[in-house]
Amino acid sequence: MPSTKPAPYILxxxxxxxxxxxxxxxxxxxxxxxxxIEARLRTVPAVSPVCEATQPDIPDSGAIYCSEEDLRHCxxxxxxxxxxxxxxxxxxxxxxxxxxALWLSGALIDKPAAVFTSTSSLHGGQESTLLSMMNxxxxxxxxxxxxxxxxxxLMSTQSGGTPYGASHHAxxxxxxxxxxxxxxxxxxxxxxxxxxxxxxNK
Length: 202
Known about the structure:
Blueprint: E1 9-14, H1 20-34, E2 38-43, H2 68-72, E3 76-84, E4 87-88, H3 90-97, H4 100-105, E5 112-119, H5 126-139, E6 143-144, H6 153-156, E7 166-169, H7 180-200
Parallel strand pairs: 1-2, 1-3, 3-5, 5-6, 5-7
Antiparallel strand pairs: 3-4
């Protein structure tokens, strides 16, 4: 009987308010595809303190909203968020808080995962945000992968980039584009997760 297992893919799940995190997600996706595996970009809707506020089922632009099935069947996960007071943004945390069924089933155990972020200020909590995003992934039993120091940009960057994951300094007005070193680290992170996932799927 033929297998119904879906083709392997890396889920790049992110929330972006001003476009920087979305730009990073695209670069990470290019790195994933360099490894020879599909990159599936998904986002999450904003949350509102007003109970009646709703979002359209399909965003006006960018990636479509992530479903539980997107997450369940991924071969690896790369999670991205802008920094909010040294933590991930509320919409991404809200989505992750609703994944208890996947936790109960162990659907994500032993799958590779990584994280990325963008901040307005250079020391605005990049590393603490990356660490905060790792917490739910560890609870899901995922295998956390960062950027190794074999990536030369880690030793020379004067903007974003950490061993905990890719990062970007967007500037006070959120208008600073992802620079060449930040781009290289985004792509290196994507390629690493893609390569590890393919090795684990053999």
